[in-house]
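To the structural biology subgroup,

Please find below the input and predicted structure for Saccharopine dehydrogenase [NAD(+), L-lysine-forming], which we are adding to the shared reference set this quarter. The sequence is reproduced verbatim from the submission form. If anyone notices a discrepancy with their own records, reply to this email rather than editing the shared folder directly, so we keep one authoritative version.
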Amino acid sequence: MAGQTLWLRCEKKEFERRAALSPANAKKLVDAGFTIYVERDEQRIFDDAEYEAAGCKLVANNSWPSAPTDIPIIGLKELPVSDAPLPHTHIQFAHCYKQQAGWSGILARFYKGGGTLYDIEFLADASGRRVAAFGYHAGFAGAAAGALALTAQKKGKPLGLLEPYANEQAMISDVKQALGGSGKGVKALVIGALGRCGRGAVDLLRKIGLDEDDILKWDMAETAKGGPFQEILDVDIFVNCIYLSSPIPPFLTHERLREAGKDRRLSVVVDVSCDTTNPHNPIPIYSINTTFPEPTVPADVGPGNPALSVISIDHLPTLLPREASEQFSTDLLPSLLELPNRQSALVWVNAEKLYKEKVAEAVKAEGL
Ligand SMILES: NC(=O)c1ccc[n+]([C@@H]2O[C@H](COP(=O)([O-])OP(=O)(O)OC[C@H]3O[C@@H](n4cnc5c(N)ncnc54)[C@H](O)[C@@H]3O)[C@@H](O)[C@H]2O)c1
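Predicted structure (tokenized):
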């Protein structure tokens, strides 16, 4: 392969410290013959110098709009809202393929500029499985936030600001310290435990010291009997990590919470799946996404009953920007190495086909 160039842009979303490409994986691309431009970015968890040491060429922050249009631009999150046409190929999460708010306007920018979108959420291998996702660290961080919320609740306080941790170990130490040294004695239930988020949640719970028997791991087999489930009310922390693909009976309801009255162990629900506005949300006991500044929302449990906090943060991996970026870009690397063959490599051919379908829908919707 010769001559492939890639441009890592800065992230503009508040609190976003992750990167689509880590310095270690940038080096692997450089070693394979890529030229990698990296925008200087103070917000990114990795120092600019780490990319320079990896053989990348540093360029000014947010300078990608003036990059040659034949260079693909890689980033993570949505671009700032604008009407400006997009002439480049962008590899990123764009959140516009499921008709989310503003979807057709975003796609219209690509159409007008003659660019292409390869949406990372839809990059899949031959078996249809996503090539790169952030799930593991979402579950890991979500379970940590759940344990912190449990300790805050025991002190009668809401959980305060959550901030990104330098690394996993710092997160584990902080949670253990809040728990008075160990999570031993805490009981948790993870549903979707066999998936990416679920495995991360289970690992965190192990690492903060819960006994293995106190980590209940449920997946499809255990929920097949249909909810609501008493077992959820009998643990301290419930972490929901399922991938909701079709309507299912709810796992937990207001009615069951009220019926349980004071006879309830459950103190914290972490909804990693965050199907908050989905009409089939299996945990219909809250209706907003919570945030790093205000991580919990109280559930309505009926008068006089013990409190129940819900965490429904939809960008949890941001709490572990270093490891999350490292794992994600390692998963993405084989596909990036195929970029020079993107006219024939399945992952890119399918991504472009999907883009063309979606842009055609947007053109119709926008009347272009
Ligand atoms: N909050 C965040 O920051 C964040 C970050 C990443 C992903 N997510 C979300 O987390 C969810 C899970 O993502 P993932 O990558 O772990 O998915 P995944 O496909 O790897 O795992 C999902 C698991 O849920 C199980 N499952 C599905 N339906 C179930 C049911 N009815 N009962 C029991 N188990 C069931 C599956 O068998 C699978 O093991 C997705 O909705 C994703 O969008 C949230």
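Summary notes: The chain has a mean pLDDT of 96. Residues 133-135, 138, 191-192, 194-198, 219-220, 223, 241-243, 248, 272-274, 313-317 surround nicotinamide-adenine-dinucleotide (CB under 6 Å).

Regards,
Lab coordination
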